[in-house]
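FORM 7B - TANDEM STRUCTURE REPORT

SECTION 1: FIRST PROTEIN
SEQUENCE AND TOKENS:
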Amino acid sequence: MRSYDIRQGVMRRVRERFPDIPVLEAEERMDEAAPCFIVKLVRGERERVGERRYLAQAAVEVHYYPAVLDASVHDTADALYEVLELIEVDGSLCRGTSWKHEIVERTLRFQVQYELRLTRSREDASKMNSMKQEGRIRDAEPRDVRS
């Protein structure tokens, strides 16, 4: 799992719900005309919980720049709560947690966090070429066997 996959999963879900509004990554925004959505990963962390297992968390922020500030901004926030509950990451569904939104300077800022459990694949260890086994019987001193 990469941060890119989570960002793309969020962008895909927003595009499905709002097909007429451009959805861009934060790095792509260049004086884009409103309305538009901007998606950016604001925080990511991983914690090791086993030999090859990790708990990954990613906080994503979706900014909505409306054409004009009106009540539809709150409707857009409600729609994002529904749409971003589940996203697809690497072929599996991931549930969002810790949703919140605020309206600052005519912009809707919607935040959601995703938690994933990751398993790192085993590293290929070098195998032994061959094992040569030799055996022999050691001569031992004769035992006194009495019948």
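SECTION 2: SECOND PROTEIN
SEQUENCE AND TOKENS:
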Amino acid sequence: MLIDTYGRVATDLRVSLTDRCNLRCTYCMPEEGLQWLAKPDLLTDDEVVRLVDIAVRMLGIEEVRFTGGEPLLRPGLVGIVERVAALTPRPQMSLTTNGIGLKRTATALSAAGLDRVNVSLDTLRPGVFKALTRRDRHKDVLEGLQAARKGGLTPVKVNSVLMPGLNDDEAPDLLAWAMRHGYELRFIEQMPLDAQHGWTREGMVTADDILASLRSRFDLAPERANERGSAPAERWLVDGGPHRVGVIASVTRPFCAACDRTRLTADGQIRACLFSTKETDLRAALRSNAPDEEIAGIWRLAMWGKKAGSGLDDPTFLQPERSMSAIGG
């Protein structure tokens, strides 16, 4: 197992397939974009599948989430999904995406074995979408969501980040829209993972802000007294159910004590925590023909040293050098 000194066991693997993205969200990267990883630095499709195989066969991983950057930009994505679906034991597979390419890929991904998707959509207003993402692709995301549902990639979850002065008034409208279309909405607090390092605690919309806004229109009741286990989202029944809404409060209500995640970057680095300032290199071991047992041992050691928490409440907290697009969500 991937166990740490605090007794937490990682069963959920986040695999970043690329650091590239076709949006330029203001809370993630500058308008001009970033310096992307060189192709030789990226794990190949074979290397990705081999590491996932080691994880599920030798380390107890049960769920795999493909992320980016934007994972739909990875040319071999469908083939990777198909090969991971054939592993024994077969992990549950999901994908976090901005949804722009889902209209053309949802059917193929479903046929390859992908179980479900999380789609990022922060606003229902095309103009605000353009201001937030610096791209005029709102319609593409909506069509991608429809394609995901039609293709059976359910439950379709929608992730929304609220930003002051842009979309912080949209929480009730987003929830009403999600319920109407059968999507499960989750609000995510803005985290200090932007490439510009412009995040401030004072400038973020908090979980309390989000819940207060939602309660202006809906009745919210904690689902199972919010005993969420290792799930990052606190979930609430809306108007008595069956619809639910989630809030992921990584900053103001951290859930580190129950974290069950391990992260693999697109260039083959293990991160024990999203906010880690250290990484462990698996790519070098792969490319030096290390056996599976040795790679598994390196991975175990990396997770054994996982810290108790993210350190966000520590006055000396330092933001990771890599931004979210380079780490993988």
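SECTION 3: OBSERVATIONS ON SECOND PROTEIN
The domain at 2-327 is CATH 3.20.20.70 (TIM Barrel).
The first strand starts at residue 2 and ends at 3.

SECTION 4: SIGNATURE
Preparer initials: ____
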